[in-house]
Amino acid sequence: MLGLPLIACAVHRLAVVSLVASVDIAAAAARLAGRVVRTPLLFSERLSEALGLVVLLKAENLQYTGSFKARGAQNALLARSERGQLPAGVATFSAGNHAAAAAFAGRRLGLPVVVCMPPGAVEVKVAAVERYGGEVVLTDDLVGTCQALAAERGYTLLHPFDDLDVIAGAGTVGAELAADAGTVDLVLVPVGGGGLISGVAAAVKQASPATRVIGIEPATANAVTHGRRHGALVPLPTPPRSLADGLTAPYVGRHNLDHIDKYVDAVIEVPEHAIERAWWELLDASKLLVEPSAAVGLAALREHAIEVDPGARVALVMSGGNVAPTTLGRLGP
Amino acid sequence: MLGLPLIACAVHRLAVVSLVASVDIAAAAARLAGRVVRTPLLFSERLSEALGLVVLLKAENLQYTGSFKARGAQNALLARSERGQLPAGVATFSAGNHAAAAAFAGRRLGLPVVVCMPPGAVEVKVAAVERYGGEVVLTDDLVGTCQALAAERGYTLLHPFDDLDVIAGAGTVGAELAADAGTVDLVLVPVGGGGLISGVAAAVKQASPATRVIGIEPATANAVTHGRRHGALVPLPTPPRSLADGLTAPYVGRHNLDHIDKYVDAVIEVPEHAIERAWWELLDASKLLVEPSAAVGLAALREHAIEVDPGARVALVMSGGNVAPTTLGRLGP
């Protein structure tokens, strides 16, 4: 039993580690100029006062498609096109925000997109894909069906987070944040499969090595914590569930774990009750419609799970704003 | 019976009409610099596509205290101070956003503020006043109690909307909008007692006379339509009720009706069902947490209550973002 983690570890260490560099993120930013919203970094007076910090919110809920995913999906298609890998179409899989973002990116580039989604996918998420002209295939076997469709149609298979172009696209969130924030002591990033934090941490740490970057995952959907023990791509033993539905990836990606190991100071877990409470506080204080996933950073601060000096400048990445109306009904102080 | 409206009309015409000029709004902007959030004017891709227009959202929900009222309240206290009318304190009345804004303004200037609120005021609105250090007096007789308190304590009585300094403060919303929007064909403004639209219309029409400014009020809370028939300050026959609770002023102010008569192209009414539907669409499309009052403009467009050319540039003023959690529970597509 003891040998297994060591073997997994050795394999991990021997593998070639590919990391996104500042130049890759700068190239992504150039590609995405005019194709993404340069989202504002908003000072929150209410949260700053409540926490005794300077709280800045990177409002990716205001991004096209309602989440940061519009960056990675578009960068991936554009970068592949530049490399002469322009596909006939794109096959991808997601229960959430990547689904709409891939459809959006495909429509912008005139490429057909098919998105494999689980049969239990939230109706508004399915509707979002269709609004952007994407084809939805409901299937229990997301990856298998997606691979089969890609092979059959000659489409490119796009992983929603374990992809260096997707990571570089997400990195533009961090690059904008670093440019707009001035000095920032701490950046808190919601963590699911690791796509967002990989890019943000790479951007922030290369721009400002002294800034701490901490990832937050729900205790009930802790793919990164699990992956650090058991290896990337090893799924959680039971399907993750959380109010923060955007963070319920079943495993951390390989490239993502590499970036987290290299650039992230810590990944910590927060309980559900803290997420629920922080979500209402965040909405009420910020007046941004953000999804529960965006509230994990505030939840961690409220739980005193992170040591932070009074008056420190803390940026919270608001990952998205796609909330089902039934979920909104659960809100309250 | 027939004679009464004519007499009221004659009195109205004979009265001295005081209007806020561009210089008053510029003076307000100078006073408020650094004291208000210069809120963004956000392009909404989703609404633009859905409506076949260029839709711009003036995000006053991101204003301090969560509504545009922070502008008028601060301008009123600062302007009075400049004129040597610095009060020992402020007495005001409101069931809604002006209450928190007055408390906020008072705290910033080190002045005590007492706010008369109705016994049925929403708990979060009362809590907001107290958060900013304001004193709350619950009373059925808002104006009478407020007048008595002002007299007793030597406080200045501040009307929440029928006040030229308050109107000039609200005008800075219009001035920023006109500066940021470039050419704009139509501005839609939520209407309660008329404070916001008085200022916005004065600013926009003086900057750009060709721009249409239209006010929207709930059909069940139509103080301006009522006031145009029966005179300013004449209360609605029954207490107004609407999902758009920020617009339930019982009458239109005198200064407000003067500004509306001079600067506003039309004030139209929208039914409750249209407000409810537009509210969810607005939240889902904009990812801003706005209160139902902010949705009346979209409701009017959705009801085809306003003629507008395809592709026209239309700005919607998001008046505020203070939503009670129980109200959020009513949301849905």
TrEMBL record, chains A, B:
One of its GO terms (molecular function) is pyridoxal phosphate binding. Its cofactor is pyridoxal 5'-phosphate. InterPro entries: Ser/Thr_Dehydratase (IPR050147), Ser/Thr_deHydtase_PyrdxlP-BS (IPR000634), TrpB-like_PALP (IPR001926), TrpB-like_PALP_sf (IPR036052). Pfam families: PALP. GO terms for biological process: isoleucine biosynthetic process; L-serine catabolic process; L-threonine catabolic process. Keywords: Lyase, Pyridoxal phosphate. CDD domains: Thr-dehyd (cd01562). Residues 36-320 form the Tryptophan synthase beta chain-like PALP domain. This is Serine/threonine dehydratase. It comes from Phytohabitans houttuyneae.
